[in-house]
Amino acid sequence: MDMLWKINIERPVAYFKSGQFVSNHGWKHKEMKLTKDFEIIIGVHKSIFIQIEDKQFELQHGDVLLIPPGLQYFGYHPSENEASFFWLHFFPRSETDRYPTDKFINHLIGSLIDHHRESINNASFLPDFFSLKYTNKPFILMNQILDIANNSYYSTYAVDYLVTEMLIELTEQFSKRFLQSYTDQYENTHKFNQILEWIRVNIYEDIHVKDVADTFSMNADHLTRVFKKNIGMSTIKYINTIKLNKAKELLCTTNKTIKEISYQLNFKEDKYFMKLFKNYEGMTPSQFRDAYTNTYINTLSVDPDIPVPDHLNFE
């Protein structure tokens, strides 16, 4: 599984058609070829046998198959009576890309860092085939999609947003299942998520690379190689980045002085904190506070002089 489908979700994808199919004994999927739409098939009961070009897939309960446009697919083996599956067609609103799986996993691991999160935040990432760990949410979403699609809502976006939510849910489940198996391929990375969590929990302490390495019975140089291999940065840079992310949050949400924030995050001295902040962020803590505090506050309140649009007024 070297490549994933990257589907942009900055705007909701466009719903096309959907349904739940229950087979008769001996049924086989007819031969089809999509033009511009994608199809998602989710196994519900018994087995469905579908071949895409020269690849064969047996879909059972909770299996997910993503079929892209331009490929021939058909049933290669008859199903038993009452074999069933959900099917859903949609159109992406922008061009889809193929995305390296290992690159996606690296972004997931480093998702506490802004540039990693931004790289994957606006898209759904799905393989051709995977299995759900939990089917309750996807099955509920499919039933909601079927209900809304057949009830003539005044806005077609109602079902478009639900289909987009489905893509996000499928990506979430795929990423969590695959991340665990993928990280096992790296030496010592069965500990890596624990290391990241340990750093997060101890972010207010004076953390050194040796402290992390000793806690997890690793050599400090080897630990840094593991960090660079997994998220493309050294251990100390990761620690500093997480500390500075917390500092930015404190600058925006509290009235604490820069010296107090520096002390709270256990920097050696406030001058070192200010120098590090400027090196990483391109501005001083004071400049950051001046530039971003009002923006942050505006996301939490509404100017009383500006009328609230009707669709946002919940009184």
UniProtKB/TrEMBL annotation:
Name of one Pfam family that matches: HTH_18
Keyword tags: DNA-binding, Transcription, Transcription regulation
Alphabetical list of SMART domains matching this protein: HTH_ARAC
Residue ranges annotated for the HTH araC/xylS-type domain, each copy included: 193-291
PANTHER family on file: ARAC-FAMILY TRANSCRIPTIONAL REGULATOR, HTH-TYPE TRANSCRIPTIONAL ACTIVATOR RHAS
Protein's UniProt name: AraC family transcriptional regulator
